[in-house]
Amino acid sequence: MTDKIVVAGVSVDTRHWIGGERVASADTFTDNSPIDGAALGEIARGGPAEARAAVAAAKAAFPGWAATSRAERARLLHAIADGVEKRIEELAIVETTDNGALLRSHRRGVMPRVAHNFRFFADWLLTLEHEDFETRGHANHVSWDPAGPCVLITPWNAPLMLATWKVAPALAAGNTVVLKPAEWSPLTASLLADIAAEAGLPAGVLNVVQGYGAEIGDALTSDPDVRRISFTGSVPTAERIAVSAAANLTPLSLELGGKSPLLVFADADLDLAVDLAVEQYDNAGQVCLAATRFLVEESVAEEFTRRFVEKATALKQGDPRDEATDIGPNIHPRQLEKIDGFVRRAVAAGARAVIGGHREDGQYYAPTLLTEVAQDSEIVQEEVFGPVLTLQTFADEEEAVRLANDTRFGLAATLATGDRERAERVTARLVAGTVWVNCFFVRDLQAPFGGSRLSGVGREGGTWSFDFYCDLKNTVTAPGGWKDHG
User: Fold this and answer.
1) Does the annotation mark 439 as catalytic?
2) Is residue 422 within 8 Å of 397, Cβ to Cβ?
3) What is the DSSP string of 100-158?
4) pTM
5) Annotated catalytic residue: which of 288, 297, 383, 460?
6) Which of 50, 90, 183, 255 is catalytic?
7) Which of 223, 305, 313, 448 could lock onto 459 through a cystine, CB 3.0 to 4.6 A?
8) Distance from C-alpha of 315 to C-alpha of 292, rounded to nearest angstrom
9) Which tens digits make up the pLDDT trace of 225-263?
10) pLDDT tens-digit profile of 170-190?
């Protein structure tokens, strides 16, 4: 295998990054672009040996990094952010080629957010403190101690942004990291390793291992030297990770699937509601937070549907490198087959495709809206992770909340209403880690993020990230009794 490939004019190393060095593997896997199916190159296919080496490198680097001052850690994270900003165009085109998301989004939003992830947690680190308090005259002081090597396993739908959402706080907290990116979108994680090294991050503090699923994942998550595991992905994979981590009682943070509702009440601004609804096709529907279930009040359902169809059918599907494209391809032939299977089974069960409902050429699936779906049907209850939405109606607020909460998930919810009191009543009853009212996808890194039910375990963001990536210590000191050393 060659050590490097060239993707859209950008050189990308295809080997692991372990202990500050590039490491090859005997086996490889092929990385294909979802845009046209073309092979981008052969990627090092790691296994237990590479997993052990990466964790060992992280363990060896941990004492030095944990002892590094907060100010120096923050400086290095800002240096990484500087490196990201210098290479935004390269990162954007590589990631678009690798995972099919819109190039314009990568340039203007996603890659700048990658740099922001590092800057935010660097700055948050410098202000992180609990107020000291007293208990019967005894002083209490709470501190955050670095936990140790962390394994971070990240998804393919927003590879670099979601990776750095974990990497940045883990490093800021004084931990060392083994990052395992998704095998369907491995390339920008390799570029991140280059950027971190150029910024001066010490060897072994950040390690990147490539591999195919459980072949390397099981070895990483079962390693007794790993002190934290953070995973974003599917429920079945999370269950496997939880079993693997249980032997060592390794703390887990799991951000999993969603089947989030968009509730549209008759008093809502319908133009706004339709805009929010069409936005759910973002990234070809490959967004865990997407409000894929439209719940619309009966009296406005017909008008809402008419306006939605008008806007949705005007979306342009095609090459994500084209500035005019609104919807790109789905990530992989297996994912496309999964999406199509969901829709075919739903239609066979009586659902009606108002728009879409079919595959296009290549790895593209037509934006789809299904109506006449039963609440207990697969299409309503299970995550599709593609451009497939459903629409149901409700008679009143009570039914709206009941339908919204009637799944195994609880990641997010979106609410469109013109009534402030209704918004407060409904949001208080929704089971969700995040609720957006008359908006969507507005995220601040200082807010807690995570899901309820099968949508996850734990919260990250702001201080919550440091609570997870650290061992919190409370030191209690008795008053007086000190000897004079003068």
Assistant:
1) no
2) yes
3) ---HHHIIIIIHHHHHHHHHHHHHHHHH--PPPEEETTEEEEEEEEE---EEEE--SSS
4) 0.96
5) 288
6) 255
7) 448
8) 17
9) 999 999 999 999 999 999 999 999 999 999 999 999 999
10) 999 999 999 999 999 999 999
